[in-house]
Amino acid sequence: MPSLKDLRNRIASVKATQKITKAMQMVAAAKLRRAQLAAEAARPYVQRMDAVLANLAGAISDPRQAPPLLGGTGREDTHLLVVCTGERGLSGAFNSSIARLARERALALIAEGKTVKILCVGKKGYDILRRNFERQIIDLVEFRAVRNLGFEQADLVGEKIRDLHAAGEFDVCTLFYSTFRSVMQQIPTAKRLIPAEVPAAAPAEQRVAYEYEPDEGSILADLLPRNISVQVLRALLENNASFYGAQMSAMDSATRNAGEMIKKQTITYNRTRQAMITKELIEIISGAEAL
């Protein structure tokens, strides 16, 4: 049985940890609002970009004339998985859920005889995936020192993807991130970037007729590279909001668990102290009776 000093040290240690988790919860709650607003503000732009690409893609009569970023290479032999996770932990299952989705996709592709390459955006995803796919990881992009994620960081990742595609390093590119729904719900998501995954265009009889200058192919050639960076930006912003939501929830649970542990340790401390007092009283009474 631990001594009273050991129990006091345990209680003091748990109380100190509880103060830390409570402070981290409050910090995450303060940062969550701004991150959530940024993620929600990016969604309409991305949706409008998808609608424009769908309209332009539907206007191309010959699919063989489509730009490579839209139509792809025509093969599916080599897959690039861009896995976006956080730079820090203490956020529950946020990082592991994204890495799990990417791992399942990678294992399924390898089982089909495909070649898999992984580009990690975020240190935590790299730490998780390198245990099983160290040879498949081709690069790691970290934004640990960046306080406010923006288009500059997204375009850096987008440029790496475009350079790899131009060099013929892969046929299909898929982006993995977490979509923010609420503090309690973050949904791991996989979205194909190349060939571009655009929504189905409206039927020809319902489609508004546009005259493009220059032609549709030239506009797509300019928009498609930007679309990759826009999609990465959305993933980074959704991840940022999801991270703070998950961290807020995880730290709240940790704070409550610490409170329960303090109660249990305090009860054990009081019982041990009472037992020692009772033992001493019995020894004093026994000694007095013996005299």
Low-confidence region ranges: none
Shape: elongated
Sheet/helix structural class: alpha/beta
Please compute the radius of gyration using only Cα atoms: 28 Å
Characterize the biggest β-sheet: 5 strands, mixed
Helix-strand pattern:
HHEHEHEHEEH
Terminal residue distance: 32 Å
Textual characterization of the structure:
The protein has 291 residues and is α/β, with parallel strands linked by helices. Helix content is 62%, strand content 13%. It contains six helices and five strands, in the order ααβαβαβαββα. It has helices at residues 4-59, 68-71, 94-111, 123-133, 151-166, 216-290; strands spanning 78-84, 115-121, 137-141, 172-180, 186-194. It has a five-stranded mixed β-sheet, sandwiched between helices. Helix 4 (123-133) links the parallel strand 2 (115-121) and strand 3 (137-141). The radius of gyration is 28 Å and the shape is elongated. It starts with a helix and ends with a helix. The model has no long low-confidence stretch (mean pLDDT 87).
Features:
6 helices, 291 residues, elongated, alpha/beta
Structural topology:
Elements: H1 4-59, H2 68-71, E1 78-84, H3 94-111, E2 115-121, H4 123-133, E3 137-141, H5 151-166, E4 172-180, E5 186-194, H6 216-290
